[in-house]
Structures are given as structure tokens and as C-alpha cells.
Amino acid sequence: MRLTLVRHAESTWNATGQWQGQSDVPLSPRGHLQARAVAARLFDRAWARRLCSDLSRAATTSDAIGEGAERDRRLREIDVGAWAGLTRREAAERFPDEVRGLMAGESVRIGGGESIEELEARVDGVLEELRERHPGEAVLAVTHGGVIRAAVGGVIGFRGRTSPLVGVGNTALTVLVERGDGELAIEAYNDGLHLDPADRDTGVPASRGVVSRLALVAIDPAAPSERRTADAILAHLGIAQIYSVGLARVGELAQQLLADPLDTLVLEDLRAEHGEADFALVLTPERVAELTARLLGVERAGAFAPPPPASVAQLRLGEERAELFSYGVRPA
Q1: Which residue in 8, 32, 236, 274 is the catalytic one?
Q2: 12, 20, 10: which is closest to 85 by C-alpha?
Q3: Are 275 and 299 spatial neighbours (Cβ–Cβ below 8 Å)?
Q4: Is 274 a catalytic residue?
Q5: Do the bridges between strand 70-71 and strand 49-52 make them parallel or antiparallel, or are there none, so unpaired?
Q6: Is the pLDDT of residue 180 over 90?
Q7: Cβ neighbours of residue 128 under 8 Å, at least 6 residues apart?
Q8: In whole angstroms, how far apart are CA 114 and each of 24, 120, 159?
Q9: Structural domains of the chain sorted by starting position, each given as residue range(s) with its CATH number in brackets
Q10: What pTM does this model have?
Q11: Please, are residues 279 and 242 in contact by the beta-carbon 8 Å criterion?
Q12: Which of the residues 32, 134, 144, 274 is marked catalytic?
């Protein structure tokens, strides 16, 4: 199975920063434009099955791609109960104990609605059904950020609030593929390159404790001309400090990256060599997959599929851990 997950376009409450959960909130004017953009990107794709959440922000996005998708309540966002309609600040002020519990990794029914564990169980059930019914087939699901986070978190072996995933943007694509052993792997995460540059999350958002931004550029050594594509992507991201590994060896870090197995590179090595600067490493696709998993602390072998050549993964390196912003992003 090859499953493409699409987060719905911007809703009116996305625009105002309010918790939505399972409240049926319509798309904003900007959201309608985003829905058209993702529809244009996917217009020539063939799907064995198309599903979407029955909430209008997802259903409207799905209808822009093509009418007739199955409405499935299991693809709804997590139910946030009494938090619905509140901003993050308002929720923290009114429900401080719940917020503290969530931050501590406790099982909390948010606003009296669902817990993250209940959401994950719901999503796991959908994935299992799709894998059983659609081996080797392409499936499209238009859903919500929490659902996508739960699906990808299960693949990399992180559940609940411990997941090292930065949330996906509106209409961003995430692709999960079934490996030869029947397990799922991540081929792409948070790919929003179909959006207008002014409407796109082009870089890693700021977060407390973030030290630097790292871009991992996948290059096939047999096709060095792809470096021009990667350079164009990095210029757009505003990253000028690039280290070529696999094409040209640069310093001790490069030697560590070329080692087999990759067992010497840790987060502290990157910080020591680069400080707080944003930088990029040019690697083979296989090395990008391996290094992404290594930096995130993913122990599940093969959780990341080697990304396409001339694609980019972005991570933010924090004081204590790394977080994944995007993976396998390549211009069409």
C-alpha cells in the first residue's frame, strides 16, 4: 500500500488560532485557495480508494481534489471537548491541570473529550484495515493534523506527546509506503511545495530551546547535476552553509557520516561543530534516511524510506533532542 495523507486546508479557526477538535468549522478564503493548489498537484493521480474525514474542512478539501471520497468518522480530528473554540492561551488559563498533565506525558482526555491514546488507537485501526484491503495499491486520505501525527508517530515508534514531529501544515502531503516485510515506512512528511511561496511554510518554525536548523539533501552520486536542484531549494530556505558528504569529503564530521555503520554521530557532535548556525549536509538518499532516524532517536529499522534524489529533509536541533519538520520534499 502507498498511502497519501493530506491535511485539510486552512479553516476559519486555523486562521484565528482556536482549538477545533471535532467542531465543524468551514474553510477560510485562504483555505479555498490552498484546496485548489493541492487539487492541481494531485489531479492526475489514480487512487484505488479515496477517503476523508466527515468534518467539512476536510470534506471540502477532498471534494476540491475530486468528488466521491468516502466520509469516514474515524478520520476526524481528536475530540478536544471544552477546549473547542479556545486559543492556546485561553485553554492554558482555564484548564491548567490538563495542560500540565499533557506536557508531562500523562493520559488526559482533553477538555473531557478524547485522550491522545484513544486517537492513536482509532488511527491504528484505520491503517490496519487499509493495509489488509489494499496491498500494493494507492490510497488517498484527507484528514487532520492530529490524525497524521498519530499515523506517522506509530511508524517511528513514538506515541503521545513524546513524538519528535513538528505538526504538518495545511494541505501538506505525507506519504507512507508498505515495505517488503509488510511494515510501513515514511517516504514524505509535511510536503507543501504545491502552495504559493507566500503561503508556504518554507523553514522550520521557531521554538523554545531550538539551537539550529539542519537540512539533509539527498543526492545520487551518479547524478551530480541534481546538486543544482538541491542548491535552489536551499537558497529558497535561506541556508548557505553546505557540507558535501559522499560527493566531497569535508572534515571530521564527513568522515563520521561516511562510516559504516553510522554509530559515532550524535547530536552533540553537530552542535560542537556548527554551534547555532543553520546548515545543510549533502548525503546519499540511504544516508539521509539513516541519519534522520538516528537524530530523532528512532529505533525501528527502516522507518524512513530513502527519499527521492534532490529532495530535502529539515530538522530543528534543540537543546535536548531533534524534531522533524519535513522529509522527502522535492519540487515536482
Answers
A1: 8
A2: 20
A3: no
A4: no
A5: parallel
A6: no
A7: none
A8: 16, 10, 15
A9: 2-197 (3.40.50.1240), 202-329 (3.40.50.1240)
A10: 0.89
A11: yes
A12: 144
